[in-house]
Amino acid sequence: MPIFPDTFPWLAAFTPAHAVVAAGVIARMAAAVAAGAMPLATGTGFRVQAAVAVLLAVAATPAALAASPTPAVSGASILGIIFGEVVVGLGIGLAAAAVFASASWAGQLLGSVTGLSWADDFGEGSGSESAGVGRLAWWLGLAGFVAAGGHEAIVAGLVDGVRSLPIGAVAAVTARDDLLELVASMPSIGLSLAMALALPALAAVLACHLVAAIAVRSVGFDPGQGLLQAVASLVLLAAVCGGTDSWIGGFAAAVQPPLERCFHDVRP
Questions:
Q1: Cα–Cα distance between 31 and 91 in angstroms, integer?
Q2: CA–CA separation, 69 vs 17, rounded Å?
Q3: CB 199 within 8 A of CB 176
Q4: For 197-214, how does the pLDDT look when each residue is reduced to its tens digit (9 = 90+)?
Q5: What angle (nearest 5°) sits at the alpha carbon of residue 147, between those of residues 142 and 151?
Q6: What percent of the chain has pLDDT over 90?
Q7: Model pLDDT for residues 6-40, shown as the tens digit of each residue
């Protein structure tokens, strides 16, 4: 007895036109995952990202077959649909990645403004992302996002997106305009979120620098090389630890509305 038709009823009536739709779904999911729509898969390697894309495509294909019109089975039609879905996946992935990057941008802003270079000290090269306050901030934001069930919302958004924007519907002028507006607006939203996250800790570090400068000039004390940077590092660490709710819970709540826009605002 065959197993797959019983497990996936839509396979029993699979046609070449359905295969074109399924190829479009795979192209969209692969491009979205590669562009950064799934933060847990970022930096995990090609195999993990490919497996995530295939699983998303399998979950989204039944909804795509129900929502998408039957495409013409021809070489030009197939190439056009796949190319269009790659563009859609890249647009959604880049928009979502810009929102996710706001936590990392906040940490990098703190490190650059305060003169801290932890990544240069502990990473493999100049500006390395393997260490530093930017990476710490990214992990804090990601932890809060996952704890709040954000990864489930992303999966649901990508799967439901084939209903709100069916396969091949990007050919409509309205869908293209919505996609361009989404990609153009998300970086500014991510930057505003980064500023909101960084401002409290930045104010604490700047206050530390101001007090240290006044004390050094008043007392006439030479602090020596690296002492003020060490104090600023401790103040920054204390500010980040004291604002854990903002970096974890606040980040998860702040990115939810922009992410909903990424997955549901593009319509034909």
A1: 9
A2: 9
A3: no
A4: 888 888 888 888 788 777
A5: 65
A6: 9
A7: 555 655 566 777 788 888 899 999 999 998 888 87
Query: pTM here?
Result: 0.79
Non-local (6+) Cβ contacts of 86 within 8 A are 27, 28, 30, 31
Among residues 85, 92, 91, the alpha carbon closest in space to that of 20 is found at 85
**C-alpha dist (Å) from residue 138 to 76, 102, 104, 246, 247:** 42, 8, 5, 13, 9
For the segment 240-262, the average pLDDT, to the nearest whole number, is 80
Here the tokens at position 244 are: 């854990």
pLDDT at 222: 67
Query: How many Cβ atoms from other residues are within 10 Å of residue 226's Cβ?
Result: 9
d(CA 16, CA 224): 74
SS (H, E, C) the chain: CCCHHHHCHHHCCCCHHHHHHHHHHHHHHHHHHHHCCCHHHCCCCHHHHHHHHHHHHHHHHHHHHHHCCCCCCCHHHHHHHHHHHHHHHHHHHHHHHHHHHHHHHHHHHHHHHCCCCHHHHHCCCCCCCCCCHHHHHHHHHHHHHHHCCHHHHHHHHHHHHHHHCCCCHHHCHHHHHHHHHHHHHHHHHHHHHHHHHHHHHHHHHHHHHHHHHHHHHHHCCCCCCCHHHHHHHHHHHHHHHHCHHHHHHHHHHHHHHHHHHHHHCCCC
